[in-house]
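Predict the holo structure. Ligand: flavin-adenine dinucleotide.
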Amino acid sequence: MSDVMEPVETFRQRARVWLKDNMPLAKDAPVRRAEDPAGPHFQRCRELQGKLWEGGFAGICWPKEYGGLGLSMDHLRAFNDEAVDYELPLSLNVPTFGILGATLVAFGSHEQKSKYVPKILSGEHQWVQFLSEPSGGSDLAGVLTRADRDGDTFVINGSKIWSSFAEISDYCMVLARTNWDVPKHRGLTMFIVKIHQPGIQIEPIRMTYGSAEFCQEFFTDVVVSIDDVVGEVDEGWTVASSLLLQERISLGGGSQFTVGAGMNRESSGTDYSILKLARSLGQADDPMTRQAVADYHATAHAHHIMSDRVTRAIGKGIMNPSSGSLLKLAHAITSEKHAQATVDIGGSAVVVGGDNRGEARDLGNRTLTRQGIALGGGSNEIQRNIISERVLGMPREWAGDVDVPYRDVRRSGGGATGPKN
Ligand SMILES: Cc1cc2nc3c(=O)[nH]c(=O)nc-3n(C[C@H](O)[C@H](O)[C@H](O)COP(=O)(O)OP(=O)(O)OC[C@H]3O[C@@H](n4cnc5c(N)ncnc54)[C@H](O)[C@@H]3O)c2cc1C
């Protein structure tokens, strides 16, 4: 194949024809209720991704060497414009493509990328990140899960929590402590681990509306090879920081690794039309309702424009990569506004439970979980800390454990020395 990049317009025309002949229309997609089990939905996403892969449209901006197309963001935007009416595997965007795929491309060895990237792009493998722990997620560098070196292997023990769709995923990246004698950010390592194997117990966590998308995992003497280290041993914080950045960018809607509208709109619930809700309740002429709809749409539009502007500026090096937190925060604020407008307009129609069925009930379910978006990928408070310290250059938050060997740091849950230490 020639190394000359296909012109965007030619690519767009090809995509238009191919999409029409191969992809189902979004309006015909099966309805997925919030409380439905996730398995069948993700299976369908994997099949849709398989179609993109077979058709030569998977991984538009991913490296060619590992199965991607090696094209530009303009090609991706052109494809997304053409694909707007078609059903796409949006649920694979976060975390598989935008977070773990992006991290693998940035830090994986040639062998790791050759082995895993094609499986991700063909829809065969779903991934998730195992970062948060029961002792707390915001202080990510304080993880207590440990990986002890034994020759060319490591033995992992500990527990991770809030892992999205872990039970139906195939591989994960696990952040574990490999060195207790250095300050907390310097003794961490990131590992690739096959999820379904002896030694890993997965416990689903049931949500308020009945589904169980989160899991807690327990690691007991899980052996991994040194070949499964992502980046360098004890340098896992560098990998984790980049992973978190990719998470913010993808959740904010600006990743080059995702497909379709940029983020998983389905998980945020923002593709449910509050205008439709207002009309169905006969409230479209009510001034308060009109105000709520207009307010939400203005916020969503500003988010969309900012997302595009910040993504381009980060790409060109004009803005610091930490500016990805602006996108994540804006996404959370927009989603929160959507949830609030839903309740203001819907009132008792969005009450969950009983005989209430249909889209209004789904909006109620989404409202119950609205705070998840302000927590997942780092809370709003943490995004504001990052923006103030790393984007605006304000003084750093004080921390007493930054220069202390981690085994001497006082912490809850593991005493002063941590488990088995
Ligand atoms: C939808 C969703 C998906 C998720 N998916 C995953 C996943 O796939 N993998 C994974 O590993 N984790 C996942 N998480 C977990 C997520 O990363 C954590 O919930 C998040 O990092 C916050 O950690 P925590 O819940 O332990 O809260 P804590 O860290 O205990 O924080 C509690 C509260 O204190 C505030 N706070 C903490 N520190 C500060 C500070 N320094 N300054 C100001 N305020 C502070 C926080 O903002 C928060 O309001 C997910 C969470 C959600 C909601």
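The radius of gyration is 22 Å. The chain has twelve helices and eight strands.
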